[in-house]
Amino acid sequence: MGQIEKEPSYRKICRKCLLQDMDENEYFTDLRKYIAQIDKDLKVEDEEYQNRLAKCKECDNLLSGMCRICGCFVEMRAVMKKNHCPAVEKRW
Q: Which InterPro entries would you find in this protein's record (predicted)?
């Protein structure tokens, strides 16, 4: 007869579920690593990426790396070919 494994008496908590629970530097490092690992076919060329970010930097809706229109992190949104600026008058 096989042994029945008991569930641990504790539950592991995902510490990366909420931003409020994470170290800010660790989160942004993870975001940059994630962007670097996105399939090249899905990403815009680096020059286009930098152009998009430059336009975001000029926008009044940029706040702490986030777009106040849609709530995204602009570095994440700008890297993807399929994405566009969420403003009514799109910047890119």
A: DUF6171
DSSP 25-72: HHHHHHHHHHHHHS-GGGBPPHHHHHHHHHHHHT-TTEETTEETTT--
- Rounded Cα distance between 8 and 28, Å, is 32
- CA distances, 84 to each of 18, 59, 66 (Å): 26, 14, 14
| Lookup: tokens for 48 | 């286009």
Cβ 61 vs Cβ 71: under 8 Å: no
Pairwise CA distance, residues 19 & 73, whole Å:
13
Q: What is the pTM of this model?
A: 0.73
Cβ density class 44-72: b for 16+ within 10 Å, e for less: beeeebeebbebbeeeeebeeebbeeeee
Q: What is the chain's length?
A: 92
